[in-house]
Amino acid sequence: MISIFVTIQIKQGFKERFVKASFGDAQGSVRDEPGCFRFDMLQDSSDPNCFHLYEVYADEAALEAHRNSPHYKTWRETVGDWFDGQAKRVAMSTVFPSDDGWRKQKSHLLNW
Q1: pLDDT in tens for each of the 112 residues of the chain?
Q2: HSE of 108, CA atoms in CB hemisphere, 13 A
Q3: Going from the N-terminus, what domains does the chain have, and what CATH number goes with each?
Q4: CA angle, 104 then 108 then 110, to 5°
């Protein structure tokens, strides 16, 4: 499994709209993408306009499928002008849970 950690700074006045738009992308990712095993949306405790996304995918092909999904494209078109600077992305490999552990957790992501 691979994962990414993305930090996004949002311009003042766009926080609520960003959260709403991002919810659609996060839900669509875990619901509609078989290769997406995690999509956490986190708000920084010290800066309410700073968000972190933690995502886990089966492999690079699953990440590419995410980037080509309708919900991701809608999200990018909607939120792009709200970014305050460039998003920062860190690519990682998962260690724990195991790949099988991630697969077993998938069904629980759909219980919002």
Answers
A1: 999 999 999 999 999 999 999 999 999 999 999 999 999 999 999 999 999 999 999 999 999 999 999 999 999 999 999 999 999 999 999 999 999 999 988 888 777 6
A2: 6
A3: 2-100 (3.30.70.100)
A4: 130
Enter the tokens of residue 98. Answer: 């195991």
Nearest C-alpha neighbor of 56 from the set 22, 18, 20, 26: 26
* CB of 21 closer than 8 Å to CB of 78: yes
Residue type, 63: L
Based on its alpha-carbon atoms, the radius of gyration of the chain, rounded to whole angstroms, reads: 14
Predicted model pTM? 0.90
Q: Are 17 and 64 in contact (CB under 8 A)?
A: no
- Asked if residues 52 and 6 have their Cβ atoms less than 8 Å apart, the reply is yes
